[in-house]
Specification:
Layout (H helix, E strand, L loop, with lengths): L12 E6 L5 H19 L3 E5 L5 H8 L6 E5 L13 H13 L8 H12 L12 E4 L5 E2 L7 H7 L4 E3 L2 E3 L8 H11 L10 H4 L10 E3 L5 E3 H4 L2 H13 L1 H4 L4 H12 L5 E3 L5 E3 L2 E3 L4 H4 L18 E3 L2 E3 L7
Parallel strand pairs: 1-2, 1-4, 2-3, 6-10
Antiparallel strand pairs: 4-9, 5-11, 6-9, 7-8, 11-12, 13-14
Length: 325
Amino acid sequence: MTPAWINTTRANAAFVVLTRNAELDGVRQAMKQMEARFNHKFGYPYVFLNDEPFTDEFKEATSGLTQAETKYGLIPKEHWSYPDWIDIEKANKSRKAMEDEGIIYGGSVSYRHMCRFESGFFYRHPLMEEYDYYWRIEPNVEFYCDLDYDPFLYMKQNNKKYGWNIALLEYRSTIPSLWATTKSFIKKYPQYIPKKNMMDFVSNNGGYSYNLCHFWSNFEIGDLNFLRSEMYTKFFDFLDKSGGFFYERWGDAPVHSIAVSLFLNKEEIHFFDDIGYRHDNFMHCPTARELQKKCHCNAHETFGKTKLLYIVVGMVACSCCGYKI
């Protein structure tokens, strides 16, 4: 059989990397693994985005790792700053209270800008406008398995809009009003919810409450035209105007996950079981013996190994970590 990479057909796609100059070593690590496992055969471009200009050193050290095109973009100020409707004094008090409570990234302004940017702006950057699909890469992540097919092309040919491989729980203290805001949006725009949605991933009681399950968005392969759609645009704008990215600490992972689960048909969401991946202490490793032949990770250490893996956060138990599409 002719190897998939010999076929010159490619999706209109790119890797997108939100990073800073100081993270160069971690970016190079991730790129070296991505190139070795997949991209030296398929040659997809990289788009690097930063809220400060990239240095020549960063550009030289990353472009030298790949034969593919590399692009470097500066994030517009309006995409990485407080919008006009935010009460900055209120936001400052909220951050201080969350920091005093020991909530992770509770006191960070830049983390909030990052979450808002990843939720509603990365796909609007001029360097991303020409593409239809994206694969998000973060510094210091690891890829464990050889990929001899094209995930981008798989998404296109099978009408998949969102791909994931790790699911876990959000910290309730960071998103106290996110679901109430989402329900207000649903009430206003019920036409955006298809019958074959995946509400049961994000709610255990038919939408009354949020179970905190989310796809971990540091790994995601997605359809940019879904993010550009009227329904997602209105959803993000509705959330943004509520102020939750700054008055609380809404993350892009629950925002993306709720949108995907509510607005897409279940068949449009894909679990990339064959892509071995690690970010921080969480790893997905394929457990099937045939898939393991192309991987160097330990399947016994994979996150969500059992079909019903329960994790308890406070008083909430959830089986999202073992959820299979």
